[in-house]
Amino acid sequence: MKELELGGLRVLLAGGTDREGGGEGPLVVLLHGFGAPGDDLASLWRVIDAPAGTRWAFPAAPLALDATGYAGARAWWMIDIERHLTAMERGETDAPRETPPGMDEARAKVVAMLDALEAAVRPSKTVLGGFSQGAMVSCDVALRTERPLAGIALLSGTLAARDAWEPRVATRKGLRVFQSHGQSDAMLPYARAETLRDMLREGGLDVTWVPFRGGHEIPQSVVSGLGTWLRAALA
Q1: Looking at residues 47-66, what average pLDDT do you find?
Q2: Comparing C-alpha atoms, which of 187, 169, 102, 183 is closest to residue 137?
């Protein structure tokens, strides 16, 4: 892997012909979740059975969470975790209608990074995705921009900005979506993920839904399913 600064974000490049993003293959960009280091998902490129020559990019979120005590912890926008968990304990699982503060800035950062990344590697096709908060940013970019994408991969994400997303869904009719979620997810409710799935399907997006018995994680069934989906999306 090699590290570059693209669009103001630190990005790890892997795969391709030289394990550093070389060649002319398609591109998969995966955004990590809240509180994780920038390289949290980087090991996935070695285990996901994507098409030969696929390049992989793993950007680090712009906000450092030094006060958490976790080395390298970062975020796409700030979340009050204690408040969120308290709401979960109370059974407050309805999706927020308003855009979370900071999501607009996160989307702009990701778009700038994608512009610079695609100019650097010139992929034939690009899939954007991520885990948890990274999945939410990916969905926001897909629905609130007109960026050409071969698909989006939403790993344990959720419906985060319904008032902004719902009117835009139909503009992405036909877009491939891979969506996975744990039925026992204690961080982001399974029911809210189902609501997002239904909203996307009703808008005409091609959603591959992969539920699993587990929590807020990426199990082997998701790794295998994502590989199969990528081979179709990037064909």
Answers
A1: 95
A2: 102
> pLDDT band at residue 83, thresholds of 50, 70 and 90?
low
Angle among Cα 54, 37, 87 to the nearest 5 degrees reads 110
Contact 170, 204 (CB under 8 A): yes
CA 128: distance to chain centroid?
A: 6
Strand residue runs (E) in 144-213: 151-155, 176-182, 206-212
Q: How far apart are CA 84 and CA 190, in angstroms?
A: 15
With CA atoms as reference, report the closest residue to 165 among 113, 95, 109.
95
The per-residue DSSP string of 95-160 comes to PPSSPPTTHHHHHHHHHHHHHHHHHHH--S-EEEEEETHHHHHHHHHHHHS----SEEEEES----
Residue 193 in tokens? 């993920």
Q: Alpha-carbon torsion 187, 198, 206, 100, what sign?
A: negative
What is the model's pLDDT at position 66? Answer: 74
Assess whether pLDDT exceeds 60 at residue 211.
Answer: yes
Q: Which residues pair with 209 in a beta bridge?
A: 179
